[in-house]
Amino acid sequence: SLSDDTEEKLNKQIMMEGLSSARYLSMASWCDTRGYIKSAQFLYKHSEEERQHMLKLFAYINNAGGHALQPQITDIKHEFNSLREVFEEILDHEIEVTRSINDLVEHCFKNKDFTTFNFLQWFVTEQREEETLARRAVELFEIIGEEGIGLWTIDQEIAKLESEG
Ligand code: OFO
């Protein structure tokens, strides 16, 4: 079964995933109000995916005899200066999430909790994909440029990123 400190760290990861979900929902809504329709769709979907990541952790903790805790999520930002800022914040946030997963993986390895270590491999792979996706999104602003129909084009391209995976 889970050690107390592993359970606590897994609950911290629940907080990270819940925070991701909340942040992306807020970003989706902002994009929606600005006419960045494709980015909004992308972010609504991403928000839902983050909630699923969180629920995976709920199931794991509770099945292992622990207690998964609904996190307190506060200080959600509602306003952004630009679409670029939104995607730059996503990239920074995903890098932070990767760091948090890696710490958790290292902790499990050191404590010989190989079951949890194994469970976390899915997140390791997922983080690599999500970081790549966010990095590609940020790159679009450089490649396409924001002038003229640039922003409109970037918004269209965001929708295609996921399928290119
Ligand atoms: Fe965006 O990441 Fe969950 O894990």
UniProtKB/TrEMBL annotation:
It comes from the Bacteria. GO terms for cellular component: cytoplasm. Its EC number is 1.16.3.2. It is found in: Cytoplasm. It catalyses: 4 Fe(2+) + O2 + 6 H2O = 4 iron(III) oxide-hydroxide + 12 H(+). InterPro entries: Ferritin (IPR001519), Ferritin-like (IPR012347), Ferritin-like_diiron (IPR009040), Ferritin-like_SF (IPR009078), Ferritin_DPS_dom (IPR008331), Ferritin_prok (IPR041719). Keywords: Cytoplasm, Iron, Iron storage, Metal-binding, Oxidoreductase. The keyword Iron applies. One of its GO terms (molecular function) is identical protein binding. Fe cation binds at E17, E50, H53, E94, Q127. Pfam families: Ferritin (PF00210). May alleviate iron toxicity in the presence of oxygen. Iron-storage protein. This is Ferritin. It comes from Fulvivirga imtechensis AK7.
